Amino acid sequence: MRIAAFDLETTDLKANMGTILCASFQQVMPPIRKLMEATDIAVPNPPTYTLKIDLDTMDPHDPNPDKELCMAIRDEIEWYDLVLSWNGVMFDASFLNARLLYHKERPTRFQFHKDLMYYAGQGHNRIGSRRLESVQQFMGIEEQKTRLDWDVWKRAMRGDKAGLDEVVRHCEIDVRVLAEAYWRLLPYVRNFHKAG
Fold it and tell me: The domain 3-188 is classified under which CATH number: 1.20.1560.10, 3.30.420.10, 3.10.450.60, 3.30.70.20?
């Protein structure tokens, strides 16, 4: 089964005003710690990867330069059997589909989509905050989430490569934290429904 943690970074919280800057993916591999302990073999996770806006070919005067990126993200999501997100139902998936709708393209067809944010809240675990950073701290996940200065976002929105690189780094850390949180939250997941 192909599983990946997924996260979007956008220029706004609403798809009518914002566009997509990037989407990061972290393939989730089954934990094989017992095998590793028994054999002293280090089994690294697959590398995190990101699909991002191409600043070299982007028309700086185009207010909606993310059409090709949206389709590439949709196609990448559809390659996986299960996609994990954090607030992905309310934000990432709906933002991506809204951008695809704007570009007159078909929506994303998730095989299975599990938004893990709901397993850190009141019905399952009353951690205190469902923010991924709070959950990361609570669980003691070593990967440290980053906070971005608003000016970094503004520079990335205006086509600054260094600004976009910082946004990508932030997004990649998010999916690595999410991939690790998945194994900790999985015992609270009762079922997986086919995405609608």
Answer: 3.30.420.10
